[in-house]
């Protein structure tokens, strides 16, 4: 799920009318960065502005469309959706063009969704669009004389709306999750072959820190520098770049980056020290809590008392599941992705697999399960060692077990809500959205 919010627009801000197919499509493409496929998209509205966006795969709804509809209604307008919308529109994205036969397939989902939104949350589903096969049509109208099948041309409607609403234009708009992944796999800088050869020699000779604090400090400082000035610095800091790449060769080096980026230095340190202790002595994990915490605290900074260490370990374990109960550090997650993207210019084998694995996790954490799945699939195609896919398989199981990442289910914790807050602080305001 991706959720978003648009700030109230000024009087001279262009207005998107969501009863126009092109305007709805433009908003969806702007929100997700690409036009979804095989998806149900919901757009919430509150006070004349967009009040939340949600995308789920249509495939899982086939087994129990009634349960899926009720779940989507809760995600969009339930207790975790504050500020909740007061109205919504829906878009069905299918492979085939709209047809009278689609009513039998999607009516259970759509009608249950509308009923649940209205009865459970007092949210009116005011419009439903059906897009597929290059066409878009009003789903609710079954009169072919009123709304001829298959409907309006998507390309024409979208082009017309973007001329009127240029702020919704997506530069080099991706066609789907695979395009977003290909963008990540194309570093902004393209080193020469000679530079790559030099870097590979440096990687082989690099001495990487073995102590948890030194390992995490290496990446922590790299993330901080990237947040300040972008990731291009890695192309001129050869020794530091070589050390970062070499840490990606190991599971330990890779796995520390999930908590380090999303939760911070101390939770990552606590969790890494715990896993190091277990590897050295598997019996450690069977110790009573107080004895375990006391033993771990002995190798950590003095300010980390056993009580605080207990909380940090809990945060460490829950960040993997996107279920910390608070917003992750999205700027650091973005910095990690930017670093990995540039490191790919020099990465080989296990280093590249680690970058793809971490990308799969960050996309799942953002609520973009389709991009995460595309990344896992690419990893499986490229991986030469089954062990490279272990964490990717785990991410797949997360998606199956939890569906939408818990962070993405809570509007104020979600990546898109944070993105919108950032956009609202810029001079370019988003359009207002009207029914």
Description:
α6 (193-205) packs across α8 (238-247) and α15 (349-366) packs antiparallel against α16 (369-382). The protein has two domains: 15-176 and 415-434, no CATH class; 186-343, no CATH class. The protein has helices at 21-32, 65-77, 102-121, 154-164, 177-184, 193-205, 212-229, 238-247, 251-255, 257-262, 265-280, 289-297, 306-319, 330-343, 349-366, 369-382, 390-402, 406-409, 415-424, and strands at residues 15-17, 39-46, 49-57, 87-94, 124-132, 135-138, 152-153, 432-434. The model is unreliable at 1-12 and 425-435 (pLDDT under 50). The strands form two sheets. The protein has a six-stranded mixed β-sheet, with helices on both faces. It has 435 residues and is of the alpha/beta class. A hairpin with a 2-residue loop joins β2 and β3.
Helix-strand sequence: EHEEHEHEEEHHHHHHHHHHHHHHHHE
Q: Largest beta sheet, briefly?
A: 6 strands, mixed
DSSP strand count: 8
Mean pLDDT score: 84
What structural category characterises the helix and strand content? alpha/beta
Gyration radius from CA atoms, angstroms = 24 Å
What is the total number of structural domains? 2
Low-confidence stretches: 1-12, 425-435
Beginning-to-end CA distance, first to last residue: 22 Å
Annotation field: number of helices: 19
Proportion of residues in extended strands: 5-15%
Physical arrangement of strands within the biggest beta sheet: 3-2-4-5-6-7
Shape by Cα distribution: globular
Please bin the fraction of helical residues: 40-55%
């Amino acid at each position: 799920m991706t959720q978003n919010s648009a700030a109230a627009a000024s009087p001279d801000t262009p207005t998107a009318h969501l009863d126009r197919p092109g305007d709805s499509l433009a908003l969806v493409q702007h929100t997700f960065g690409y036009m979804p496929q095989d998806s149900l998209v919901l757009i919430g509205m509150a006070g004349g502005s967009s009040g939340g966006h949600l995308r789920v795969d249509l495939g899982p709804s086939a087994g129990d469309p009634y349960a899926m509809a009720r779940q989507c209604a809760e995600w969009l307008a339930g207790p975790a959706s504050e500020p909740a919308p007061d109205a919504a529109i829906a878009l069905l994205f299918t492979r085939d063009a709209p047809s009278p036969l689609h009513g039998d397939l999607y009516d259970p989902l759509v009608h249950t969704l509308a009923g649940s939104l209205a009865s459970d949350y007092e949210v009116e589903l005011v419009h439903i669009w059906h897009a597929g096969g290059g066409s878009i049509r009003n789903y609710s109208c079954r009169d072919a004389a009123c709304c001829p099948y298959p409907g309006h041309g998507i390309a024409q409607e979208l082009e017309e709306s973007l001329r009127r609403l240029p702020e919704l234009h997506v530069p080099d708009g991706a066609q789907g999750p695979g395009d977003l992944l290909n963008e990540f796999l194309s570093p902004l800088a393209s080193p020469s072959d000679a530079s790559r050869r030099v870097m590979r020699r440096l990687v082989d000779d690099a001495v990487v820190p073995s102590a948890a604090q030194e390992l995490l400090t290496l990446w922590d400082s790299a993330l901080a520098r990237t947040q300040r000035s972008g990731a291009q610095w890695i192309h001129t800091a050869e020794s530091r770049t070589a050390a970062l790449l070499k840490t990606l060769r190991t599971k330990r080096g890779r796995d520390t980056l999930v908590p380090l980026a999303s939760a911070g230095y101390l939770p990552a340190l606590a969790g890494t020290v715990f896993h190091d202790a277990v590897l050295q002595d598997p019996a450690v994990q069977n110790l009573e809590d107080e004895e375990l915490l006391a033993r771990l605290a002995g190798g950590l900074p003095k300010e980390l008392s056993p009580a605080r260490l207990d909380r940090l370990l809990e945060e460490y374990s829950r960040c993997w599941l996107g279920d910390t109960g608070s917003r992750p550090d999205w700027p650091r997650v973005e910095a990690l992705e930017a670093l990995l993207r540039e490191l790919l210019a020099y990465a080989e084998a296990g280093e590249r697999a680690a970058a793809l694995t971490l990308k799969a996790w960050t996309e799942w954490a953002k609520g973009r399960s389709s991009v995460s799945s595309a990344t896992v699939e690419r990893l499986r195609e490229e991986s030469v060692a089954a062990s490279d896919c272990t964490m990717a398989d785990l991410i797949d199981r997360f998606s199956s077990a939890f569906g939408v990442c818990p962070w993405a289910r809570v509007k104020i914790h979600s990546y898109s809500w944070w993105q919108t807050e950032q956009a609202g602080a810029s001079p370019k305001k988003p359009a207002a959205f009207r029914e």
